[in-house]
Amino acid sequence: HVIRELGTRADPRVDRITVDGKPLKLQTALHYVAFNKPVGVVTTLTDPEGRPCVGDVIAALKHSLHPVGRLDYHTSGLLLLTNDGELTARLTHARYGVPKTYAAKLDRSPTAEQLARLRGGVKIEQGPAARARVRSTRTADGKGWVTVTIYEGRNRQVRRMFEELGLRVEKLRRVAIGPLSLGSLPTGATRKLLTEEVTLLRRAAGLE
Ligand code: URA
Fold it and tell me: Which of 15, 72, 84, 141 is catalytic?
C-alpha cells in the first residue's frame, strides 16, 4: 500500500519496498581482498580436522567474506575473498570463461610435443578437451616451469592435464584470475583490491 505517514517502519528483508513504482535496492558495501594462500591451507570456512583454513584468514578481516572457488590443499597463490555474490558466480562458472593462470613446476622439462598437446586441448575426462594457453616455459635444474592459462575450473584441472601428458606437477601456484595478478603479495598475506582492479575484474566477468 502507499505510505503517507512519516515514520512508517518497514523491514527491507520482508517487505517489498518500491519508490515511485521502482523496487528499492539495498546497498550492501562490497569488499574485495586478495589472499596469497600458502600450501597446507584448506579453502573452506571451517575444517573439522582442525587444519588451517581460509575461515581463519577471513575471521581476521573486518567483513564476512567468502572465498571465490577453491585451490587444492597443495596449491598456493591467488584466492579472492569477497561478499560480491554476482562476481563470485561469474568467476566460478565456466560459462563466463574468465581465465585463471597458474605457474606449475614439473618433474622435468616438457617436450615441444607435450606443449603442443597442451595448447590443442587435453582430454581429462568425459566432455570436451580442456583448452589451455601456454605462455612461457623456462627450465632450471633440469625441471620445467610452465605458465598455463585455463578457462574452466574443473576439479584438479591443471594437475590432471599434466598427468594426462605423463608429467608430474611438483608445485602449483595460481598467479592470476583474469586481469587480477598475485604480484608480489607475500605468502599468507592479504591485501584490499584497488578500485581499479575491482572494475577490471568485474568487467572481465561481463559486469559493469
Ligand atoms: N588446478 C589444480 O590442479 N589445482 C588447483 O588448486 C587449481 C587448479
Answer: 72
